[in-house]
TrEMBL record:
<dbReference type="InterPro" id="IPR001647">
    <property type="entry name" value="HTH_TetR"/>
</dbReference>
<keyword id="KW-0238">DNA-binding</keyword>
<dbReference type="GO" id="GO:0003677">
    <property type="term" value="F:DNA binding"/>
</dbReference>
<dbReference type="InterPro" id="IPR050624">
    <property type="entry name" value="HTH-type_Tx_Regulator"/>
</dbReference>
<dbReference type="Pfam" id="PF00440">
    <property type="entry name" value="TetR_N"/>
</dbReference>
<feature type="domain" description="HTH tetR-type">
    <location>
        <begin position="8"/>
        <end position="68"/>
    </location>
</feature>
<dbReference type="InterPro" id="IPR009057">
    <property type="entry name" value="Homeodomain-like_sf"/>
</dbReference>
<protein>
    <submittedName>
        <fullName>Transcriptional regulator, TetR family</fullName>
    </submittedName>
</protein>
<feature type="DNA-binding region" description="H-T-H motif">
    <location>
        <begin position="31"/>
        <end position="50"/>
    </location>
</feature>
Length: 189
C-alpha cells in the first residue's frame, strides 16, 4: 500500500470511528482520544488529519457523502432509466446516507457547512463532487434544455435539502427514507 493509500485509509478509519461514536455518545460527549482509540491511531495522528470535531463533521458530509454518492450514481447512470427515475434514485440514496449518519451529525453538518459557505461563498458545491454528476445527468438528458438544466438541478437540490432539514426539525421521529421518498415521488415524478 502506498503512503497516499495508507493516509486515505487512516483518514477514512477516523471518519468511520467518529460516526460510530457520535451516534452512540453524541458529538459533544465524544472525546478525540476516544475517536483515536476506536480508529486505532494516536491522538497526534488524529490531529494530522483533522483540526477538530467540527472538521470531522464537515468531512463526513463532504468526503463520506461524496464517496457514497459517487459510487451509487455510477451504479445507476447506465441503467437506461428516465431522468425522473434516476433523480428519484439519487434522492433516495442521499436520504439513505443521512439515515446512516443520523440526526446529530446531519444537524451539525448543516450548521458547520453553512458557516463555512458563509465565510467562503460557493464552498459547498465546490466540495460536493457528486453534484457535478447529478448536473451531468440532467444536462445529458434529451428532454432537458441547456436553459433549464441548472434550474432543474437547483430545484432537485432544494427538495432534497428541504427534506433533510425538515427531518432534522422533526428530530428524526421517523426514518428519513420513509419520510422523504413520498415527497420525492410527488415532486420529481
Amino acid at each position: 500500500m502506498t503512503r497516499v493509500q495508507q493516509k486515505a485509509k487512516t483518514r477514512n478509519g477516523i471518519l468511520e470511528a467518529s460516526i460510530k461514536l457520535f451516534k452512540i455518545h453524541g458529538i459533544e460527549h465524544t472525546k478525540i482520544a476516544e475517536i483515536a482509540k476506536e480508529a486505532n491511531v494516536s491522538v497526534g495522528t488524529f490531529y494530522v488529519h483533522f483540526k477538530s470535531k467540527e472538521d470531522i463533521v464537515s468531512a463526513i458530509y463532504y468526503e463520506g457523502f461524496n464517496h457514497f454518492m459517487n459510487e451509487k450514481i455510477d451504479q445507476i447512470e447506465t441503467t437506461g432509466l428516465s431522468l425522473k427515475e434516476i433523480l428519484l434514485k439519487v434522492g433516495i440514496f442521499e436520504l439513505q446516507f443521512v439515515e446512516n449518519v443520523g440526526l446529530e451529525i446531519t444537524t451539525a453538518a448543516f450548521i458547520a457547512n453553512l458557516r463555512i459557505n458563509f465565510e467562503i461563498p460557493g464552498n459547498h458545491f465546490k466540495n460536493r463532487t457528486f453534484s457535478e454528476k447529478i448536473q451531468s445527468l440532467i444536462v445529458n438528458d434529451v428532454e432537458s434544455s441547456e436553459q433549464n438544466s441548472q434550474i432543474l438541478f437547483e430545484e432537485f437540490e432544494t427538495i432534497v435539502r428541504g427534506i433533510m432539514l425538515t427531518w432534522c426539525f422533526k428530530n428524526a421521529t421517523m426514518s428519513i427514507v420513509d419520510f422523504g421518498a413520498p415527497i420525492l415521488k410527488k415532486y420529481i415524478l
